[in-house]
Design brief:
The protein is an alpha/beta fold. The protein has 11 helices and 10 strands. It has a 6-stranded parallel β-sheet with strand order 6-3-7-8-9-10, with helices on both faces. The chain has a two-stranded antiparallel ribbon with strand order 1-2. The radius of gyration is 18 Å and the shape is globular. β7, α4 (138-148) and β8 form a beta-alpha-beta unit. It has helices at 2-25, 89-95, 111-125, 138-148, 170-178, 181-193, 199-202, 206-216, 240-250, 259-262, 290-303; strands at residues 42-43, 52-53, 68-71, 79-80, 83-84, 100-101, 131-136, 156-162, 224-230, 266-271.
Length: 306
């Protein structure tokens, strides 16, 4: 019964992703100019501590040394009309005077394809300039590929990954294992029409990340690596099933990615939310004060010389 339920969930995800992808192909990658009210600043966690917000500073502290590129993960997008993958984060950063860019790359694809797209879009926006990357989920693997395989160690000052499957995702193992070949072929055919690739799912499985991706993409000593993980304290209803399944295989998780897998570089702590809440979805209606977190993260990067 559980495999059938998960198959339905995965099929629904693919359909919704395809709908988003069709709209995004003709969408605008540029940041919106909306200005928002000031949000509270927050405090980063230490080790396994949970991040908690603090009152905002009395005076603006200024932008980061290098521009902020926020990179989406698997099934993500940049801007779809007023709806951004990192919900209103880029708008808020811009309102606070940060130089920020939220590009869109192929929603379901390999790290090679997504990282090359990311490189091209960053180069178009910031030719030859050094940048910081804040990456969610698979976006963190794209960024590591960008740094290591594409040789961007001299272009990235700091990389912050948010619930990135640095040791792979057991839910991807489960998905690729329960879908019959004919279903995978059908999904791949639909995705191919949209310029996407089912291989992107395979590449976030634990065997692939651990045995293929990680050895080929070691850290670059010129880059500072930081990470956060969601601990699933608050779970969006559609993720309750996957949260329970992953818990049985990995323990602590955010409904999509295990906490241990998401820990990489300097661990800055846990975020008391799920995989969607980390980027402010659904549409900001979450208990986690995510905007406070992103403002505090930018302040941390500035203080870290990034």
């Amino acid at each position: 019964m559980i495999p059938k339920v998960i198959s339905v969930i995965l099929a629904t995800i693919v359909v919704l992703t395809c709908a988003f992808a069709v709209a995004c192909v003709s969408g605008d990658d540029d940041d919106d100019d909306d200005k928002l009210d000031d949000d509270d600043a927050g405090e980063l966690g230490d080790d396994d501590d949970t991040w908690a917000p603090l009152p905002p500073p009395e005076e603006a502290l200024g932008p980061t040394k290098y521009p902020l590129v926020i990179a989406h993960g698997f099934m993500g997008w940049g801007y779809l009309g007023p709806l951004s993958n990192f919900y209103l984060v880029a708008d808020t950063y811009a309102a606070f005077g940060y130089d920020v860019f939220e590009p869109w790359v192929s929603s379901i694809n390999t790290m090679e394809t997504r990282a090359n797209q990311l490189a091209n879009k960053i180069d178009a926006r910031y030719p030859g300039r050094k940048i910081n990357i804040i990456a969610h989920s698979q976006g963190g693997l794209d960024a590591r590929y960008l740094i290591s395989t594409l040789g961007w160690g001299d272009r990235v000052a700091c990389l912050v990954t948010l619930s990135t499957p640095h040791q792979g995702a057991s839910i991807a193992d489960f998905a690729t294992g329960i879908l019959p070949d004919v279903a995978q072929d059908a999904a791949d055919a639909v995705l191919e029409l949209l310029g996407m690739d089912w291989e992107g799912v395979v590449q976030v499985t634990r065997p692939y990340v651990r045995d293929v991706f990680n050895p080929a993409n070691p850290d670059d000593e010129r880059v500072k690596y930081f990470s956060f993980h969601g601990n699933g304290e608050e779970i969006f209803a559609p993720l309750e099933i996957t949260h329970a399944i992953i818990a049985s295989m990995e323990g602590c998780n955010d409904g999509i990615i295990g906490c241990d897998s998401a820990t990489y570089g300097e661990n800055l702590g846990a975020l008391p939310t799920d995989h969607f809440g980390i980027v402010g979805h659904p549409l900001g209606f979450i208990d986690f004060p995510y905007m406070d977190f992103y403002l505090d993260l930018a302040a941390f990067l500035r203080e870290s010389g990034c």
